[in-house]
Write a structure and sequence with these properties.
By secondary structure, this protein is α/β, with parallel strands linked by helices. It contains 13 helices and eight strands.
Amino acid sequence: MKVGLFIPCYVDQFYPQIGIASLELLEKFGCEVSFPMDQTCCGQPMANSGYAHLTGGCDTNFVNNFSEFDYVVCPSGSCTMHVKEHLHSKENEAAATHIRKHVYELTEFLTDVLKVESIEGNFPYKVGMHQSCHGQRGLKLSQMSELNAAPFSKPNQLLSSIKGLELVSLNRKDECCGFGGTFCVTEEAVSVKMGQDRIQDHKEHNVDYITGGDMSCLMHLEGILRRQKSNIKVIHIAEILNSI
């Protein structure tokens, strides 16, 4: 299958190793992966700030770059959900519709499309899993704790096969970290306090790393950890799953 690798802006600019890990991981499972060089922002920051009417150029560019692929895969739940819910094109709505129906977050693609049940890897550390809101509540990557239903987690399913990895059970496993895109700018104090609370949960379980599927959330937590001079590190789940 032909897969278009969609890399969020902040990953491209600040954490390119996540894009590389995602590429290598998909290729390990036989995907023919391409990275369209003209891809830019999907438009999520503008839409989340109330300026969805300004995202037309982003939509057009996205369709032009990703319409030729069987699937579009992204190592970010929030960006994936934005495309899945909001991508349209006046010039080629059929192509936009195809993309909306075939865009997947990375762990979702591995479990639901490729049917991956286990991944060979080695990561001998104690890890806390931060499940971002868009991934959990929007894409249904894991069960929400307030629902009276059988628990599941696609990211945890993949992490469970990594040798040496000890995945802790957090007290409030699906609590928001406070990032929220532009929320962390407009409501800085609230955002920081939420992030501090999220980190405290991981601290109480003595984790070495906090991982997750959205580097935007992890970037927010990383900034707080640095200010606290904490030894806890953040790492995107793609990097763990691609470990040897």
